[in-house]
Every structure is written in C-alpha cells, then in structure tokens.
Design a protein that fits this description.
With 174 residues, the chain is mainly alpha-helical. Helix content is 61%, strand content 0%.
Length: 174
C-alpha cells in the first residue's frame, strides 16, 4: 500500500519537479530545455524535503503532510485573491457590497445593433438580400463534401480530427 502511495506521490510530484527544474517559470513563459542532471538534482532536493524524518524513505504520513501543506498554500492564495476581489467591489469600503456597487463593477455588456451583412454575404448566393433554403444549406454541405475525404457520405472520426487539425494550423501563404 505504501509503495503504491509513494509511486502515486512520485507521479504527482514529478511534473512539479520538472517545472522547478526549469526554474519554476510562470505558466505563460515559454518552455526551456531541461537536462536530466537538472531534473535529477531537483528530484533529489524535493525528495530530501519530502522525507521529513530523514530515514531515507517516504511514508504515508510524510505524503499526507506534503499534500496538506500544498493545499494550505493554495487555499491561502485563493483567500487573498477573494479578499482582493471583495475589496475592489466594495467601493465605499463599508465591509459590504450593495447591489449598486456590484452592478457598477460587474456591468453587463450592451447589446449592439445586429449586423446581418456577414450572414447574407456568406449565404445569399444570388445577392438578392434573401436566403433561400438551398442557399442556407449550400455552403455547409459543400464544406461537408470537402471534408469527406473518402466520399462515403460520412465524416469519420479521422476525417473530423483532420478537419480540426487543419483549422488549427495556420495556412502558409506565398
């Protein structure tokens, strides 16, 4: 049982160790190469810290203590963020948020004037300002036919996956 917990803890802690080996860069920072030696040094330091009784083994109590400490740290961060958000909403600093204060900071977006032009441009094939059933279905069915690589009338999971990948890959223009 303890071996399973230790293995699970190692799996849980390994990504953190890998991130730490990269210098604990912010999440939005680009990834940098990490050598095996860097990762090994970070794992050694992390294990030494995890082995709180210094017996050369990590038991369930030590794992629980590490997990609890991590949860407490995360909770403290969330608490600070929550308090800061409350303070930003409490405009008159009276310790409560009125409906007026809340609405002022959480304003709903305004609905602008709808623009039918992009829809008409896409679907109104004969440009008469009206979309017929055939015009409405045409572009979508044409796209389906284009994506149906084997022309069997079904978009297989592979064809759907290829379409998503193609959509995510920027086109190269020459």
């Amino acid at each position: 049982m303890i071996r399973h917990l230790a293995f699970a803890a190692a799996l849980t802690l390994a990504p953190a160790a890998a991130a730490a080996a990269q210098g604990a860069a912010p999440a939005n920072a680009p990834a940098t190469p990490v050598t095996r030696a860097q990762l090994n040094a970070r794992l050694e330091a992390d294990y030494t810290n995890l082995d709180s009784n210094k017996d050369g083994k990590v038991g369930a109590d030590e794992i629980k203590a590490r997990l609890k400490k991590g949860a407490e740290t995360e909770l403290a961060t969330l608490s600070k963020e929550r308090d800061a958000t409350f303070a930003s909403l409490d405009a008159n600093k009276d310790g409560s948020i009125s409906r007026v204060e809340f609405n002022a900071k959480a304003e709903l977006p305004k609905i602008g004037e709808p623009d039918a032009a992009p829809v008409l441009a896409r679907f109104d094939g004969n440009k008469d300002g009206q979309i017929t059933r055939d015009e409405f279905r045409g572009p979508t069915l044409a796209n389906f036919d284009k994506l149906d690589a084997d022309k069997d009338g079904t978009l297989s999971l592979n064809e759907q996956s290829a379409a998503r990948k193609a959509q995510q890959t920027p086109a190269i223009r020459r």
